[in-house]
Write a structure and sequence with these properties.
Strand order of the largest sheet: 3-2-1-4-5-6-7
Oligomer: single chain
Order of helices and strands: EHEEHEHEHEHHE
Number of helices: 6
Largest sheet: 7 strands, parallel
CATH class: Alpha Beta
Number of strands: 7
Radius of gyration: 16 Å
Number of domains: 1
CATH architecture: 3-Layer(aba) Sandwich
């Protein structure tokens, strides 16, 4: 299979690449690194990147920024960080990417545990992660040519605890290598319209 992984240099994306590259042709993409450059906030960038790589069997998005702040202090600009990247970035990627997928191909997006279990300073992330999950459930009914779509919703990953651990008190972390299995399940399986909740200890 020919698979595009967006966010391939990230903590999660790099392990998804590792899990897939032994048996598949994996094209690594990122905003400033990888085999091809792609900016989730820019539909023209998506079209240019996808046109350059040609027909694909699967697209994986392990990227998407969100802002963290208390609700009282969240600015419109901070809301827009997540709206333009985490939410509309993945919505646009689905709409544009479907044109470049082979029949029966798949799209895998990313949300997060905050959609189900809120944290301090996480209102924006919770709202947008939940929206992505509802989007996937709905759009799965409209994608053409047998194209599947799922979303992976991870808890905090072990490798990021030094940076984000204080935001997730008492949460079970998951190793990125184990989390990558949920992405592999989405890419290589048969399910569609699902949220794969990768919550360690759940």
């Amino acid at each position: 299979m020919k698979i595009l992984v967006i966010g391939a240099k990230g903590t999660i994306g790099s392990k998804v690449v590792d899990a897939l590259c032994a048996s598949h042709d994996v094209i690594k993409a990122g905003k400033g690194s990888g085999d091809v450059a792609i900016d989730l906030t820019n539909p023209d960038s998506m079209r240019e990147a996808l046109a350059s790589v040609g027909k694909l069997d699967a697209i994986v998005c392990a990227a998407g920024d969100v802002a963290f702040n208390s609700f009282a202090n969240l600015s419109r600009e901070e809301w827009d960080v997540g709206i333009n990247s985490r939410l509309m970035g993945q919505v646009n990627l689905t709409q544009i990417g479907a044109e470049y997928l082979s029949d029966g191909g798949s799209i895998t997006l990313t949300s997060g545990i905050i959609a189900d279990h809120p944290i301090a300073y996480g209102v924006s992330a919770a709202t947008l992660n939940g929206a992505i999950q509802h989007f996937v459930n709905a759009v799965a009914n409209e994608l053409p040519r047998g194209i599947r779509i799922n979303v992976v919703s991870p808890t905090v990953v072990t490798e990021s605890l030094a940076t984000y651990g204080d935001y997730f008190p008492g949460f079970h972390a998951i190793d990125a290598k184990d989390l990558a299995k949920s992405y592999v399940r989405s890419v290589l399986g048969v399910e569609t319209g699902k949220t794969f909740k990768a919550f360690a200890g759940n």
